[in-house]
Amino acid sequence: MNARPFQRVLIANRGEIAVRILRACRQRGLETVVVVSEADHASLAAQLADQVVEIGPAPAAESYLRVDAILEAARSTGAQAIHPGYGFLAENAGFARACADAGIAFIGPSAEVIDAMGVKTEARRRMQEAGVPVVPGALLDGDDSAAWIEAAKGVGYPLLVKAAAGGGGKGMRAVESEGALVDAIGAARREAASAFGDETVYLERLLVRPRHVEVQVLGDTHGNVVHLGERDCSVQRRHQKVVEESPAPGLEDALRSKLHDAAVRAARAVDYVGAGTVEMLLDQSGDFYFLEMNTRLQVEHPVTENVTGLDLVDAQLRVAAGEPLGVTQDDIVVRGSSIEVRLYAEDPARGFLPQTGVLHLFEPPHGPGVRVDTGVVTGSEVTLHYDPMVAKLCAWGDDREQARRRLAEALRETTVLGPVTNLEYLLAILEHEAFAAEQVHTGFLTEHLEGWTPGDDDDPIAWLAAAALFASDPSGRTGMSSGASGDDAPTDLWSELGPLRLVTDAPEHSAEEQ
Amino acid sequence: MEIDLERDGVRRRAQVLRGTDDAWTISLDGADHVVHVVARDENTLLLEVNGVRRRLRWVRRGRELHLAHRGHTDHVHWVEEDDADSASAAGSPVVRAPMPGKVLEVCVAEGDVVEAEQVVARIESMKMELALTASSAGTVSSVHVAVGDLIEPNAPLVTVEPTDS
Questions:
Q1: Looking at B79, B99, B123, which one is the last position of a domain?
Q2: Domain A136-205 sits in which CATH superfamily?
Q3: Per residue in A281-337, pLDDT tens?
Q4: So what's the ipTM on this one?
Q5: Does B152 sit within 8 Å of A503, measured CB to CB?
Q6: B58 and B7 in one domain?
Q7: Could you say which of B22, B33, B61 has the minimum Cβ distance to residue A479?
Q8: Cα separations (Å) of A250 from A124, A300, B47?
Q9: Closest Cα of chain A to B111: distance in Å?
C-alpha cells in the first residue's frame, strides 16, 4: 500500500517477535523503535532497540493495543513505518487505516484486505468466488423442517448445527445422521435464542479428525504472488497450536499442489500484499476447505524459513518499501523438513495453567539445524499480563525424522528453572510413536496425551543426592568443587557463586548455626 | 548427618556420610548410594551416582533446589530442625517473605535498633501489600534486599540480632 521507502521502523509488539523483527530491520540497516509497556521497559527487545518509547501500563489494553499512543510514538521518534508483529494490532484494520492516514507505512496488507478477511462470511464469499473450496454449509431460515432436511442433505453428514450469532460452543450440536437433525436444530435454536437473543442457526459439515494445513503466501505491490509451501499445525490444544512443521507430512504431490494453487488463488483474489497465510482443513479423504486467511506474519513462520531459506520478515520489509519480491515461484524450493514447538510457562499437569515468575536459569539449546526464537533471558520474568511463551524451538533436518530427533535432543538440552513449563510435555509429543509415524490430526493431543503427567526422573537418587549434598554443606568447606579450590575454598561456598548471592541465604546460615 | 528431603510432597530421610575426597555415601530408604561429585559450578553439578554420570543443572532458593536433567525439571526441598521457627516467627532473627512478591519499602537500615513487632519491610504480593515485622527487639545486623527487588517465598529480607543474645 504505502510504497514510500523508510529508514526507521517502529515495532508495535513485544517478546520474541519484537526481537525477531528488530533483527531483520538491523540486517537491512534500518533503525528501530520499540514501544513497551511499563512491564517491558527492560525487555530484550527494549535492550536491543535504538529507541524505546513507553506507551502505558502493563495491561495490553492500556499499552500494546493503544493506537493513539503507538502513532504518537511513531511521530515523536520519526518512525516512517510500523511492523505490528502478530497478535495485538496485527489484524486490526482500524490501526492499518490510522497508519495510512498518518502517512506511516503499515507493514502488512491494506486495511481493506484485513477487513475482508476478518469478517468470516465475507471471507467465505470471496474465497468461493475465487474457486477456493469452503466447508459446505447452509444458513437456515424459517421453521419448515422439511426444508432443513433438504439443506442438510446438501451439506452432508456428519454436520454441526451452529448459532449464527454464536461463540463458545453455545447453540452448537453435532448431528451424525438425518434422524437426529430436527431435534438438534430445535434445541440449538432455543439455546441460541436464550444465549444470543437470535435463534438463527446454520449447518456446517463436521470434519472427522481433520488436519490443519496452511499455506504461506507472499505478495508484492507489483502484482506478484508466490507460495512458500505448506505447514501442518494439526497438533493443537483447544485451537492453540503446539507443534508446527513444514512440509506437511504424508501428502501426495498432487494434493500438495492443489493446496498451494488454492492458496495462491485466494491471495490473488484480494490482491494480497505482504506475508499471509491461508489456513485450511484437510479431511481424511483428501478434500480440503478454506478456514481463514491470516493477514500477518504467523508465530510458526520459522519452519517455512528453515525449509525455503527465505527470510519472511525481510521480505515483508522489502515489500512494504515497494520493492518487488525478487523471487519467482520456480526459485522457491522446499528442502528437508522443519518442526517447531512452543515452549510455554504453563503446567500441563494442572490444566495448562499459565505460570509466572522469574526465570532463574534459562538455557536455550544449540546444535546443527537448531533455531531458537525468544524474547527472554535468565533473570527475565514471566508475568500474567501476556502470553506466557518462553521460546519457540525449531529444528531442521534432511528429513522429518532427523528434524524430530534433533528437536527432541534440543529440548532435552534446554534448561528452564523457575516457572513450570510444558517442556516435558512437548518431548512426550515429539517422542510419541503416532507423531513419529506422521499420524497427526487436530484430535492428536486429546487422543494420545489426555491426562498426561510428567514422569519420574530416571534417577531420583541423583536429585535427592544433590539436595542432600547442598543441605549438608552450607559452609562450602566440604570440598564440593573439583580440583582447584580444595581446602582453600572460601568458608562461604555461596559467596563465590556470583548472581546467586542475591537469593541464597548464606548470612542466615551462620546465624542459625550459632 | 540426617536430612529430611521433600519431593512431590513425599518426605524421605537421607543419611549423608562424607567419605574421602568428593565421594559421599547417601543412605536412602535403607539402601546405600555412592555419589561422587565430579565437578560443579554455579549452575552445574556433575555427579556420578552408583557409577552413572549425571549432569544436573541447578539453582537454589533457600532450602529448595530446582533441578533439571535432560528435559525433566523438578525441585527438592530439605527440612532442617529449626525449620519450624525459621519461616515465620518466634525467635528467628531473620525476617522472611511469606510469599513471592516485590519489595515496596525497606523501613530499616543496618545498625537500627528495632522493637518487637516493628515493621521492617513492606512487600507487594498477589496485589496485596504486606507489612513484615521483627519477631523480637534487637539491632538490624543486615538488610538483604532493596526496594524493587523481586523475592521468592522464604527469601530473607532483614536480619535482626535480638537484644538479649
A1: B79
A2: ATP-grasp fold, A domain (3.30.1490.20)
A3: 999 989 999 988 999 999 999 999 999 999 999 999 999 999 999 999 999 999 999
A4: 0.78
A5: yes
A6: yes
A7: B22
A8: 28, 20, 44
A9: 16
The alpha-carbon gap from A15 to the nearest alpha carbon of chain B, in Å, equals 20
Structure confidence by residue, pLDDT tens digits, A418-435: 999 999 999 999 999 999
Question: How large is the angle between the packed helices A400-412 and A423-430, nearest 10 degrees?
Answer: 150
- DSSP class of residue A134? B
Same domain for B7 and B75, yes or no, is yes
**B157: distance to nearest CA of chain A, Å?**
10
Q: Which of B22, B52, B62 sits opposite A459 (nearest CB)?
A: B52
- Contact between A185 and A195 (Cβ < 8 Å): no
Active site residue A400: no
- The C-alpha cell of A89 is what? 494490532
Q: Tell me the mean pLDDT in the region A33-55.
A: 97
Secondary structure letter of residue B150 according to DSSP: E
Question: Is residue B135 predicted with pLDDT exceeding 90?
Answer: no
pLDDT at position B154:
77
What torsion, rounded to 10 degrees, do the Cα atoms B86, B89, B92, B96 define? 60
Tell me the C-alpha distance between B89 and B133, whole Å. Answer: 9
Q: How far apart, in Å, do the first and last CA atoms of chain B sit? A: 27
Q: Domain residue spans in chain A?
A: 8-107, 136-205, 342-488+509-513
More confident residue, A120 or B164: A120
Q: Which range is least confidently modeled, A313-327, A434-448, B70-84?
A: B70-84
Mutation target among B61, B99, B145, B152 for the A interface, most CBs of A within 10 A: B61
pTM across the whole model: 0.80
Closest residue in chain B to residue A460, using alpha carbons only: B7
When pLDDT is averaged across residues A251-259 and rounded to a whole number, the result is 97
How confident is the model at residue A488, as a pLDDT?
A: 36
The pLDDT mean for chain B works out to 82
Q: Answer yes or no: do B71 and B97 share one domain.
A: no
* pLDDT at site A469: 79
- Which strands form A288-294's sheet, in the order they lie side by side? A288-294, A274-282, A211-219, A225-237, A240-246, A337-344, A389-397, A370-374
pLDDT in tens, A187-243: 999 988 888 888 888 898 999 899 999 999 999 999 999 999 999 999 999 889 999
CB atoms within 10 A of CB A412: 17
Contact B73 A421 (CB under 8 A): yes
Q: Clarify whether residues B65 and B102 are in a common domain.
A: no
B59/A455 touch (CB, cutoff 8 Å), yes or no:
no
Query: In the predicted model, is pLDDT for residue B84 greater than 90?
Result: no
* CATH class of the domain at A8-107: alpha beta
Least CB-CB distance to B5: which of A424, A468, A505? A468
Task: Say if residue A133 is preceded by a cis peptide, omega within 30 of 0.
Answer: no
Topology, domain A342-488+509-513: D-amino Acid Aminotransferase; Chain A, domain 1 (3.30.470)
Tell me the mean pLDDT in the region A484-511: 33
Residues B73 and B97 in one domain: no
For residues B75 and B109, membership in a common domain is answered with no
Cross-strand bridge partners of residue B23: B36
Q: Which range, of A382-391, A426-435, B30-39, averages the lowest pLDDT?
A: B30-39
Write the burial class of residue B53 (CB in 10 Å: 0-12 exposed, 13-18 middle, 19+ buried): exposed
Q: What is the mean pLDDT of residues A125-144?
A: 90
Which residues does residue B138 pair with via DSSP β-bridges, in sequence order?
A: B114, B162
Domain total in chain B: 2
Among A189, A296, A342, A371, the active-site one is: A296
Print the domain residue range for B17.
2-79
